Structures are given as structure tokens and as C-alpha cells.
């Protein structure tokens, strides 16, 4: 079984000067300390300490080998979106970031699959950006779950999502930019509570506004963090739809009627939560996602799925089969490719994939019992 992690972040080695493309004084950049550690920066402000795996593909692939992950679908760190910048600057910034993402993944093309980012503050620019990126080799796009006050059901955003469907670009939605509130300042509560609420809000707005009726049904849409609090509170939302006309006024179906319109990752960290998630979404709509390489991510990728009571077929679907379908990865996992195919090099070992000494032989992963 090919193991595919669909929720893994990258922050390319962007300099302070590069950050000036986006904003004059507080653009995002990476301070590399030269000892395997670094700091995500916003201008002169330290944002978050990070490790070399965030920007070094060789280190990343070595860690993927150690943890049993065959392929990562990689996306930029949300700090890099730049939705509040001037459109022209944001478009140039996204093109630069997307080029660096392609360069990053080119170091291990059989292992790393890129998603682009786009200037969502302008629909036309965003559509042009994703078209360029898909033509250049990106498999989809990574979006924040809102653009200022505009949620995913806003007309400009649904226009972009429709364009993605026409381009065949998968869409990963990640919560970000939670409202500042002193009640969530402590204990990372903005991440623990705010992010899950943001994702639930996004899914419910798509459902209750009727946006799912307007967006093409073949849009490949994925929400991070197990869909946030949505799966657990779906019954509450359905109950409200049935009992209150102000809830159902714009939607012909209750929220549960749109479960076949999106996917979620498996980053829920608890066997009971995973059981509920699969019960609600179905085993064909949950994909392995770890939030690598950040500390809140799953430390042992796929362990929760493997330890679950799911059938072998369901586990294989969650661990990789669903991701291969959603992101169109048959060229990487299909027959005869030997998890990358002849001539593709495992960059962590400099050994051709499938050759003697590789961890993949004749298209079969030798770590099947992990």
C-alpha cells in the first residue's frame, strides 16, 4: 500500500529581500540558523521556531522514509498566503512561491507533490494564477478558508472554485487568520478551538448558502483537520435545518445532504474521533493527513488508522488510495511505476527506486506490516 500524506507544509528558503515582493516591512521570510533550526519571520517579528525539515527536501524525504510515508502532497505555510496585499504584488509573490514549491518537489519528484497558492483577493488574478500553476506541474491549490470577511460561499470565491473544477485542480482548504480574541490568547486556544470552528463555519456556509448547488459537483475539495468540529456537530446542524426556516431558506438539502461533495483529512488524533469521522464521511472520503512538520501534527503518520477497527480495504483507502484518486496520482502509484518508476531517484539515499538497497522493490512496499 502506498502511504500518502495530504497535509504537509513547506516554507521555502525565502529571504528578507524576497519578502519585500509582498509587503515592504512585514513580509514572511525564513531565518535559517545554520544548525538545523530556523525561525519563521514577519519582517522583524519572530513568528514560530521551525526545523530544517520545513525547507530542506533531503531532510524531509529522510524523515518520510523513517516514518513510512511514501508520498507527501505539500502546501505552503498559511502565513505565506498574502491575501491582504496589493493584488499585483500578491500575484508576483504567489508566482515566486509556486516556482520555489516546484523546485522543492523536483528534488524528489516521485515523493513530493506540489500544491500552489494564489492571490485570492482578486478572482481574475487567482484564476490566472492557478491556471499557470497547474500547467507548470502543481496538482492543485491550497486556500485559506476565508478572504477577509468573505467566506467560501461568497460569489468571488465560488467563481474561483468553479474555475478550479474546470481546470481539474484539487483544492485543499486550511483554516487560518482566526479572529483575535483575548479569550483564546492562552494555551494555543486559537489553534485548538478557533481553527476547528473556522472549518466547521466554512463547510456550513457552503451547504446552507446553497453554494454546493452552484459549484460543479466534480470539484475535488478537501478540508484539513478532520473537517474541524463539523462531523461531531452535524446532527445539530441538520436538526436546525429541519426545524428553522431561517436555517434552510437558501439550501434545498440539510448539511448531511452534501457529504459527498468534499473530503477531510484524518488529523483527529483519537481512535474514537476517527471512528466517528469515518462513520459520518464514509471511508472513501477520509485521507491521511498529518500537519507535518509542525508540533501539533501526527507524530507517527498513519498509526491511528492502522490501529483502528477498519477493514484492511478501508485502511488502505485512508492511507493512500483515496489520496491517489483525489489528487490524480496514478502516475506515481500506478502499475509499473515501482513507486516512481525507472530512473527516479530516492533523494534521501541516492538509490534508484526499485533498485537493490531501495525500500521499494517491484512496486511493493517492503514495510507492509508497519
UniProtKB/TrEMBL annotation:
Its EC number is 4.1.1.45. Residues 1-21 form the HIT domain. Residues 359-370 have a biased composition (Polar residues). The keyword Membrane does not apply. Coiled coil: none annotated. Monomer. Residues 340-370 are annotated as: Disordered. SUPFAM superfamilies: Metallo-dependent hydrolases (SSF51556). This is 2-amino-3-carboxymuconate-6-semialdehyde decarboxylase. Keywords: Decarboxylase, Lyase, Metal-binding, Zinc. Belongs to the metallo-dependent hydrolases superfamily. ACMSD family. Pathway: Secondary metabolite metabolism; quinolate metabolism.
Amino acid at each position: 500500500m502506498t502511504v500518502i500524506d495530504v497535509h504537509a507544509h513547506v516554507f521555502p528558503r525565502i529571504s528578507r529581500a524576497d519578502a519585500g515582493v509582498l509587503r515592504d516591512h512585514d513580509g514572511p521570510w525564513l531565518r535559517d540558523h545554520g544548525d538545523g533550526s530556523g525561525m519563521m519571520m514577519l519582517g522583524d517579528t519572530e513568528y514560530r521556531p521551525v526545523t530544517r525539515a520545513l525547507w530542506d527536501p533531503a531532510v524531509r524525504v529522510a524523515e518520510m522514509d523513517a516514518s513510512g510515508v511514501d508520498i507527501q502532497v505539500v502546501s505552503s505555510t498559511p502565513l505565506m498566503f498574502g491575501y491582504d496585499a496589493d493584488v499585483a504584488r500578491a500575484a508576483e509573490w504567489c508566482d515566486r512561491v509556486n516556482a520555489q514549491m516546484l523546485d522543492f518537489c523536483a528534488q524528489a519528484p516521485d515523493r513530493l507533490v506540489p500544491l500552489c497558492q494564489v492571490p485570492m483577493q482578486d478572482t481574475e488574478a487567482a484564476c490566472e494564477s492557478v491556471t499557470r500553476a497547474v500547467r507548470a506541474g502543481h496538482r492543485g491549490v491550497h486556500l485559506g478558508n476565508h478572504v477577509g470577511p468573505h467566506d467560501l460561499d461568497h460569489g468571488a470565491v465560488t467563481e474561483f472554485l468553479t474555475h478550479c473544477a474546470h481546470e481539474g485542480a484539487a483544492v485543499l482548504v486550511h483554516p487560518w487568520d482566526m479572529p483575535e480574541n483575548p479569550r483564546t490568547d492562552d494555551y494555543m486556544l486559537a489553534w485548538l478551538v478557533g481553527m476547528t470552528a473556522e472549518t466547521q463555519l466554512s463547510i456550513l456556509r457552503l451547504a446552507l448558502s446553497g453554494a454546493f448547488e452552484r459549484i460543479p459537483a466534480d470539484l475535488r475539495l478537501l478540508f484539513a483537520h478532520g473537517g474541524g468540529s463539523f462531523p461531531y456537530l452535524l446532527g445539530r446542524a441538520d436538526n436546525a435545518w429541519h426545524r428553522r426556516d431561517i436555517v434552510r431558506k437558501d439550501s434545498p438539502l440539510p448539511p448531511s445532504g452534501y457529504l459527498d461533495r468534499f473530503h477531510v483529512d484524518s488529523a483527529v488524533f483519537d481512535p474514537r474521533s476517527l471512528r466517528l469521522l469515518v462513520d459520518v464521511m464514509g471511508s472513501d472520503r477520509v485521507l491521511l493527513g498529518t500537519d507535518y512538520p509542525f508540533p501539533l501534527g501526527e507524530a507517527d503518520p498513519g498509526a491511528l488508522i492502522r490501529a483502528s477497527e477498519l477493514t484492511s480495504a478501508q485502511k488502505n483507502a485512508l492511507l493512500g488510495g483515496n489520496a491517489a484518486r483525489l489528487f490524480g496520482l496514478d502516475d506515481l502509484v500506478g502499475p509499473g511505476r515501482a513507486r516512481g518508476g525507472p530512473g527516479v531517484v530516492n533523494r534521501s539515499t541516492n538509490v534508484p527506486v526499485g533498485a537493490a538497497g531501495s525500500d521499494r522493490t517491484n512496486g511493493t512496499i517492503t514495510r507492509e506490516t508497519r
